[in-house]
Amino acid sequence: MSRSNCISDCTRNIHEEITLQMMSDNFSINPTYFSRLFKTVTGQGLSSMSWA
Fold it and tell me: What residue spans define the domains of the chain?
């Protein structure tokens, strides 16, 4: 997972409800692992991201 892919997928769907399960399914990885990897790659936890 690259930072640009992750952020791109999140922002492309900014007006839709995005769940942890949806994002982890998109990258074919476990949701818990996705959450930890997201924080490692972006430097921010999912809950701290401003999606609006």
Answer: 3-44
